[in-house]
Amino acid sequence: MPRSNHKINSLIIKGGHKKKITWLNILNAGANEIAYLRREFNFAPEDLRDATVNITALHAKVKGRENYIFLAIRFPYYSQENETINGAEIDFFIGHDLLVTLHDNKINLLKKLFDGYQKQNGKQITPIDSSVDLYYQITDKLLDWSFNLLDDMSKTIDDIEDTIFSHKSRSAVTTLLDLRRNAINFRTITKNYQMVFEKFEKLRAEAGLSDSHTPFPAVIDKTKDLWNTIENRQEMLEALYATNESILNYRLNDIMKTLTIFSVIVFPLTLLAAIFGMNTLNGMPFINHPLGFWWIIAIMLLGSFSMLLFFKRKGWM
Question: Which pLDDT tens digit goes with each residue over 167-176?
Fold first, then answer.
């Protein structure tokens, strides 16, 4: 291990039966780090190319090799910069007593886990007897991280629900759209988790990589729970969005109804004003009458009152 390369962090974890598991945690792998992995561990060039942080996999990759398994998978994280949930790729090389992780530290949980193992000086509270045990422990923490993101989303959804029903539906539109986008991103990122872990387990068994302490079904169950939870959140968001749209449409219709009633009530006034504003003095009633102005005002008010009474009887107001 080159001591001068600060991007490559090495840790020896003491397992049972005097076994030692090496964990290499690499941040922002560049050409030097990739060359080191190719030279020291003989990883396949195409796997190392996929593990370069500048190339983000749009879908998960699981490949079984002669002496290791390569896995590239995205995990969700919340970006403070654009306030959205995005996916950060983490690449794993899992071999016999060897685990290599490559990432760009957007999900800083991985570095915290590494630092936590370092502070324990290789003495683990949870038994680790193989690189697969270590991989599953890391994955389990990353899945918990995803659940925490969903919990934060749920709190925001509850706040939006209160906002919608407190007559502030207009201000909730932007937040609802952002939440829908985040739910879609989260769903896209986590969609294939179950398939990925099932394929990994199959390749692990074929390669003879042991997992002494990690119950594989528990990991699969957690991915199912994660998927069901995000599905429920998305359904809730769609229901809230539809409810908010209904409230906005109802208020818009109510405003249009009020404006329509007002325009119809004012119509007799406008009509009579237009008629008596014509330049045809001969034969125009009330023109020469001393109370003609007040007669015209009375007729206008009578017409408006009649329209108002008509709407009232129809139950339109």
Answer: 776 777 888 8
- Within a domain: 254: no
Single residue among 223, 249, 275 that ends a domain in this structure = 249
**Angle at which helices 131-164 and 109-119 pack, to 10 degrees?**
130
Tell me, rounded to whole angstroms, the distance of Cα 267 from its chain centroid: 52
Domain hosting 290: range is: 260-314
Q: Which residue matches tokens 């699969």? A: 220
Query: Listing from the earlier edge strand, what are the strands of the sheet with 61-64?
Result: 8-14, 20-27, 98-103, 84-95, 68-79, 61-64
Stretch (H or E) spanning 296: helix 292-314
**Structural element, H or E, at residue 98:** strand 98-103
Which residues, in sequence order, are CB contacts of 17 under 8 Å at separation 6+?
129
**Signed CA dihedral, 13, 15, 21, 27: sign only:** negative
Rounded to two decimals, the pTM is: 0.75
Which amino acid does the sequence have at 111?
K
Distances (CA, A) of 11 to 27, 97, 118: 14, 12, 7
DSSP string for residues in 173-231: HHHHHHHHHHHHHHHHHHTTHHHHHHHHHHHHHHHT---SS--HHHHHHHHHHHHHHHH
pLDDT digits (tens, 9 = 90+) for 126-151: 667 788 888 988 998 999 999 999 99
Same domain assignment for residues 38 and 85: yes
